[in-house]
């Protein structure tokens, strides 16, 4: 007997009477805008809609590593045909979030301790590389947006998932200013993979105030166009994050 994929959280608000056809959500697709971490909102296609729903469920842990995803069940739960689900799973496989298991199913990917360490190191080093180029290019509007995100981090410091999304947006603005789209995309993919492993509540509660203050210092260095100071703060963040992640890695070995 096939194991049914668990229903996704009711983010779609589809009524029980809704048809299983794509028409049941077409009006919502027309209006929906998916906001990637730190990116501008824009209209999305049906495939992008399904991809975003599944990506969010995976990165927030609602679909757990090792969990099997059946195309038929996902299509029914999302009220779409199998075609956009199939394309969405292919996209998520390219991001390392799922492993395609058969023509009709996929499995939510797990990360080994070595992969966790590799991804975290890539994020920090790529951000440092981007910062050298980006700091002199940051606009007043981008700096003000970063400052607003810091304010929101203080407001959301009791919610790990929300806080980490805001933190990712903050750092994404800095990286985006380098105008290296391949580097930016690489960091985005790394963050999506590691996000579900770093919202560790115990560590979060103990460290969140320090993390926000460090972001405030990084913002100050960016406003002052002080590349050396910014890189020092990024390296400091690397050492601190590595220690926290190492503790989580050790638990998984």
Describe this structure in words.
With 253 residues, the chain is mainly α. The protein folds into two domains: 23-108, Orthogonal Bundle (Arc Repressor Mutant, subunit A); 113-252, GntR ligand-binding domain-like (Four Helix Bundle (Hemerythrin (Met), subunit A), Up-down Bundle), CATH 1.20.120.530. It has helices at 23-31, 46-59, 71-78, 82-94, 113-134, 140-155, 160-176, 181-198, 201-223, 227-252, and strands at residues 33-34, 42-43, 68-70, 98-100, 105-108. The strands form two sheets. A three-stranded antiparallel beta sheet has the order 3-5-4. A two-stranded antiparallel sheet has the order 1-2. A hairpin with a 7-residue loop joins β1 and β2. α5 (113-134) packs across α8 (181-198), α6 (140-155) packs antiparallel against α9 (201-223) and α9 (201-223) runs antiparallel to α10 (227-252). The chain is globular and about 55 Å long.
Give the overall silhouette.
Answer: globular
By DSSP (H or I, 4+ residues per run), the number of helices equals 10
User: How much of the polypeptide forms β-strand, as a percent range?
Assistant: 5-15%
What is the CATH architecture annotation of the largest domain?
Answer: Up-down Bundle
The helix fraction, in percent, is 55-70%
With strands numbered from the N-terminus, the spatial order across the biggest sheet is: 3-5-4
| Domain count | 2
Query: What structural category characterises the helix and strand content?
Result: mainly alpha
- Per CATH, the class of the largest domain reads Mainly Alpha
| Poorly predicted spans | 1-7, 9-40
Instruction: Predict the CATH topology of the largest domain.
Output: Four Helix Bundle (Hemerythrin (Met), subunit A)
Order of helices and strands: HEEHEHHEEHHHHHH
Rg, rounded, reads 19 Å
Largest beta-sheet characterization: 3 strands, antiparallel
Determine the N-to-C terminus distance.
33 Å
What's the mean pLDDT score?
80
CATH superfamily of the largest domain: GntR ligand-binding domain-like
Number of strands: 5
